Amino acid sequence: MKRLFAFACLVTTSWFAVQAQDWKPAGDKILTTWGEQLDPKNPHPEYPRPQLERKDNWKSLNGLWKYTVVDKSVSEKPTSWEGDILVPFAIESALSGVGKEVGKENALWYSRTISVPKTLRKGRTLLHFGAVDWQCDVYVNGQHIGQHEGGFDPFSFDITAVLKKGADQEIVVRVWDPTSDGPQPRGKQINNPHGIWYTPVTGIWQTVWLESVPETYILATRQTPDVDASTLTVSANVDGAQAGDQLVLEAYDGTQKIADASVAIGSEAKLKVSNPTLWSPDNPKLYDLVVKIVRKGKVVDEAKSYFAMRKISMEKGSDGIQRMYLNDEFVFHYGPLDQGWWPDGLHTAPSDEALKFDVIKTKEMGFNMIRKHIKVEPARWYRHCDSVGILVWQDMPSGDLGGNIWDMQPGKISNGVHDKDRTPESEAIYRKEWKEIMDALHNFPSIVVWVPFNEAWGQFKTKEITEWTMDYDPSRLVNSASGGNFAFIGHILDIHNYPGAAMPDPNLFGDKFVLALGEFGGLGLPVEGHTWQEKDNWGYQSFKSKEELKERYQELVNDLDALIKRGLSAGVYTQTTDVEVETNGLMTYDRKVIKIPEAELKKMHEVLYQHVVR
Question: Which residue intervals define the domain Glycosyl hydrolases family 2 sugar binding in the entry (predicted)?
Answer without folding.
Answer: 106-177
